Amino acid sequence: MADPIEIEAPDDTGSPTFRRYEYQVHIAVQAVLEMLAGGTVQHVTCEHIEDIVVARSGDPRCVAGSLFWDFQQIKTRDSVEPWSLRDVISKGPLRSLWRTHTAVQGSGLVLVYQLTAGIEGHLDPADAPVTALSRGEGAANANCRKRVAAHLGVPQDAAVDDFLGLVRVRTLARREDVEARNTRVLADLAGPELPVGTVDALYTELLRRTREATQGRPPARWTELLAIDSPPPAVLGKRITMAVIADVRQRLTRPDHVLLEDVSEALHGPETALVRKLRQGAASRDVIEDAKMLRAQADHYRLREQALGTWPDNLAVETDLDQRLLLLARRVGRSHKEHPQPADAIFDGLQEALQGNPGAYDRHPLYAQDDVLLMGRACAVSDECRFNWGDVRDAS
């Protein structure tokens, strides 16, 4: 039977555009999560002036009672390569931020603000101009200053220097990771009392409300919830305040137990494959910290042995150990597949197995048959994407 699905579409940009739009919604929810945690975020405005505008209180640069405004332009791309200054320029966030900067400067309003280019992925650490730009030091880097001015079509003068001093580049979780990271933060806020299904439902509701704000669709009583007098039509329906999400916060049983710095780090800090996989398996904060520490210890030991010349040159020796650790980890993982927090159970089971018989795995030995170092090496193998720590959704 003939099917039009077989016809090559003349314009097939709809799905990628929708995925980028959804990614922006997930990034906006991150600021909402900080608000839920009792942080400095006062409200989040979607698709007005910039993709996202986050207003914070308590910034030392502001006079008492005034807000610090973060205008965010969000950019995605399919490539997993690190971003250079050329990549950032080609995606166009700086043009949009320049327009915002010009509009704010010409508005007559006295605002303390920042201009953020949020990029999916990570920066190229070897690219000095983009590193300088990310820190608000673009004006001090001659190459960055020249290229940005040329891109904007403006002279290299004080106006460009002022603009570059306000610009920051923030790296963001990739599309395939952002929902898992956000959901894990929400689970931390909720505590172990709320089941995984309820946490997922709450996150879905936060997404829905943020999506509606992005579309400018006000709920009932939105004018009152905005907490401002006579909001302009352009903003009506686009701002999320604590009042809008008060019912969600009531479902979280222990928001006061979460350190705000931890929430911010969990949302915005760099995340390795190891940490990402642990989060997907609902690992507790203690297990995540232990895994990172053990992995660092094993790496330090390996580098020290290499420096001393005692590490074997035969790669087959290390490969043998890694394969044995991999088989063990996968076997332990299968046995805890249905656990409500599979990552914690797998982590404990792996430790127990290595403590009981380290010589069966470290036969040569490479890591002195030390179960702590072997556990660290197992974490490194996981970080290399060779096994995971379960999936909490499978358990639920």
Describe the structure.
The chain has helices at residues 14-36, 85-91, 93-106, 128-134, 142-152, 158-166, 175-190, 196-214, 222-225, 246-251, 260-268, 273-280, 285-308, 315-335, 342-356, 371-383, 392-395, and strands spanning 41-48, 50-56, 68-75, 112-120, 167-172, 239-241. The protein has 396 residues and is of the alpha/beta class. It folds into two domains: 14-268, no CATH class; 273-395, no CATH class. Helix 12 packs antiparallel against helix 13 and helix 14 crosses helix 16 (371-383). The radius of gyration is 24 Å and the shape is globular. The protein starts with 13 loop residues before the first helix and ends with a helix. Mean pLDDT is 84; it is low at 1-15 and 219-229.
What count of structural domains?
A: 2
Beta-strand content bin? 5-15%
Oligomeric state of shown chains: single chain
What's the helical proportion of residues? 40-55%
Low-confidence stretches: 1-15, 219-229
Between the first and last Cα atoms, what is the distance in angstroms?
40 Å
How many H/I helical runs?
17
Sheet with most strands: 6 strands, mixed
- Topology pattern, helix = H, strand = E: HEEEHHEHHHEHHHEHHHHHHHH
The total of beta strands comes to 6
- The Cα radius of gyration reads 24 Å
| Main structural class | alpha/beta
Shape assignment:
globular
- Give, in spatial order, the strands making up the sheet with the most strands: 5-4-3-2-1-6
Mean pLDDT reading: 84
What's the layout of helices and strands?
Elements: H1 14-36, E1 41-48, E2 50-56, E3 68-75, H2 85-91, H3 93-106, E4 112-120, H4 128-134, H5 142-152, H6 158-166, E5 167-172, H7 175-190, H8 196-214, H9 222-225, E6 239-241, H10 246-251, H11 260-268, H12 273-280, H13 285-308, H14 315-335, H15 342-356, H16 371-383, H17 392-395
Parallel strand pairs: 3-4, 4-5
Antiparallel strand pairs: 1-2, 1-6, 2-3
